Amino acid sequence: MPKIKVPRKSTFVDMTAMCDVAFLLLTFFMLTAKFRPQEAVMVDIPSSISKIKVPESNIAIVHVDRKGRAFFGVDNQQTRERLLEIMLAKYQVGMTPQQKEQFKLLENFGTSIKELPKYLNMDSDARNKYDKEVALGIPVDTTNASAKNELADWVHQARIADQQLANAGLITSDGLIIGIKGDGNMEYQNYDAIVKSFIDREIYKFNLITTLKNFQP
Amino acid sequence: MADIQVADKGGKGGKRVVKRSTRVDMTPMVDLGFLLITFFMLATTINKPHAMEMNMPAKAKTEEEKSVIKESRALTYIVGKNNKLYYYIGVESPMVDSVDFPPSSNIRKSIIDRQKAVAAQYGHKDSLVVVLKAQNQSLFKNMVDLVDEMKINGVTRFAIADYSKNDSLIINGIISK
User: What percent of chain A has pLDDT over 70?
Assistant: First the structure.
């Protein structure tokens, strides 16, 4: 019987196709990943066992840093634009179209509305410096409730702006979600003042933004 | 390398131009690709913050609207300065105690004990009402920990209230001891 000759085959596997897939996926993940919005202040948030994810869109976040300064930002640019119109009319502050355009691109800010035009004229370096050294945060006032409660007004009016745009069909939103991102080491009275000012504007429901804590039973 | 070289059988003698393979080994590139994918996938999901829902009650307009809790089913916590936590039961002759935290698991025993006492009296542990208060100079994270602890122990009824003068009298009692 003749021997069957087994041809020796190369074990070379063509990796090109696999490589294509890998980089395709990589590109996909890189493009879908959302850049973390630039934050004006460093906030070290406390931890909790809460597993509810913070929604990605239609959210207004109040950052409160260690010194208790409040910074405010809305994620949706259309809402921002509308909100600014409402607030400028309410506080009777004038702004140039350029400043309005700048505001649309602003992730968050921590100045009173009177200072806001000046802040919008700065370039990004000057803004960073201002946020670190000069900014006092958005005024929170609970004693003089109706007149000077700027932070609660921003939040309250943002909710109205969001509602209006959703009703007009310009954005899809099930109501603006309000988040408080407070530094764990700030004094409780700062948080308390913000919550009291919210209650004053009939905002009773909000979220505290926390990191996930490992639960030890 | 992902291949094993198959030995060439030399054919005829004489000079031969060595034909080099134009194949490029893609294995390290694939490795790199998947490594980066893994990194991006983890980096996008892990960093997501979580939300803790808070519902505050509407401001009571009149004295009658203010809710009153029976002393026998209440437990009051006061977050104090220097990571102290005070708690008391009853108002007239309060039983006050204090613990240090973090870790917030130090609080757990006091909640569970009180839940048991309330369950014995009212039949269910959900009858317990916990009131949370904080001094102005206390830290925000301690308050978050405390609210978190309510959720861990399944306290369904708790409310955040204002720190009052009466509370400071009760706390001062324990500090001076």
Answer: 91
Domain for residue B155, yes or no?
yes
Shortest CA distance from A18: residue in chain B:
B30
pLDDT per residue over A179-216, tens digit each?
998 888 888 888 888 888 888 888 888 888 888 876 65
**Three-state SS sequence of A45-107:** CCEECCCEECCCCCEEEEEECCCCCEEEEECCHHHHHHHHHHHHHHHCCCCCHHHHHHHHCCC
Answer whether A160's CB lies under 8 Å from A152's CB: no
- Test the B interface: residue of A50, A155, A198 with most B CBs within 10 Å: A50
Q: Domain span at residue B78?
A: 71-176
Answer yes or no: is A113 within a domain. yes
Which residues of chain A are within 8 Å of residue B143 when distances are taken between CB atoms? Answer: 188, 191
Domains contained in chain A, number: 1
CB contact under 8 A, A52 and B33: no
Interface pTM, i.e. ipTM:
0.74
pLDDT in tens, A30-82: 887 766 666 667 788 888 888 888 887 888 989 998 888 889 988 888 888 88
This prediction has a pTM of: 0.75
Count how many domains chain B has: 1
Residue in chain A closest to B104 (alpha carbons) equals A216
